[in-house]
Amino acid sequence: MSLKLNYKKISPNILEACWPPEIRQSILMEMMIMKKRIISEWHDELWDVNLGYHCLSLHFKDHFSLNQVVSKLETFCSEKFQQEVIKRKRWSIPVLYEGKDLQRVSEITKLDISDIVKLHQDKPYLLHFYGFMPGFMYLGGLSPKLFAARKDRPDPVIEKGSLAIGGKQTGIYPMDSPGGWNIIGKTPLTLFNLNKQPPLQAQPGDEIQFHSIEKTEFESIQKEIANHQFELKYEYI
Questions:
Q1: Res 79: pLDDT
Q2: Quick count: other Cβ atoms within 10 Å of Cβ 180?
Q3: Using an 8 Å Cβ cutoff, are 10 and 2 in contact?
C-alpha cells in the first residue's frame, strides 16, 4: 500500500481502516485489494466488510483484539504486493435527459440544458460503493461545472430510475424514494433486482457510462425488459 492508514474502533466488533479523506481511484483500488486480504484472513470471523469513499468498515461477529487486527493490517500494508488484477467493467446506462430539475440546474450552473446533458455523459464515472439505500451508486467523476446544491425542501417521492445531481455527486435512485437531489433524467433500467443473482450487476471499481436516448428508445427498452429480452451492455476495461 502507498498510503498510511488510520484506525478507529467504532464498537467492540466494528473497526474502520481509513485512507486520507480524498475521493481518488487509486485509493479505491487499494481498498479493494485490502478488502480481499481481510476477507481471506478473517472470513469466518466477519459479518461483512463495507467500502466507503476512503474507509473500510470491518464488522466482526464478536469482540476483537484491536492490537492483533491492526498489526495484521499493517503487515498487509507493508507487503510488496504483486500488481493484482481486478477485473473491471464499464457499463452503458441509457438515459432520457428530460428531468424536471434541468432548468434549476441550468440556473445554478449558468449552462444551457444541452450543455448540461453533453457534459454529464462526456466521460464515465467510477463506482466507489453502494449506500443510502439498496442499489444506490456513489459515483465519482462529476464535472465541477455541474455541481448543483441539493434542494432545501426534498421531494416526497422521486421515481425509480431517476438520474440526479446532488452537490458534487451524481447517481440514480434505484427505487421510489424521497430525495433532495436535482433530477436531470431517467433510465428505463432496473438497477437493483432481488430476482437476479447478484441483485446488483455493477460492482465497486466498475465504471458507469451514461448515454442519451430519445423517448421512443426509452419505451422500446421498457418493452424489451418486460419481455426479458434486454441485456445491459458492458465492456471490460
A1: 75
A2: 15
A3: no
Q: Could you tell me which residues are beta bridge partners of residue 164? A: 171, 183
User: How far is Cα 144 from Cα 109, in angstroms, rounded to an integer?
Assistant: 9
Dihedral angle over CA of 167, 171, 173, 179, nearest 10: 0
pTM equals: 0.86
pLDDT confidence bin for 81, thresholds 50/70/90:
low
Q: Kindly state the average pLDDT of the residues 72-82.
A: 78
CB-based contact 28:126 (threshold 8 Å): yes
| Banded model confidence at residue 84, pLDDT cuts 50, 70, 90 | low
Cα 109–110–111 angle (5° rounding)?
Answer: 90
Strands 162-166 and 169-172: antiparallel
Long-range contacts from 46-49, C-beta under 8 angstroms, 24+ separation: none
Contact 130, 200 (CB under 8 A): yes
Q: Is the pLDDT of residue 83 over 60?
A: no
- 41 vs 18, 28, 36, 131, 202, CA distance in Å? 19, 20, 9, 25, 25
What single DSSP character describes residue 161? T
Helix (H) or strand (E) holding 102: helix 102-109
Question: Average pLDDT of 56-64?
Answer: 95
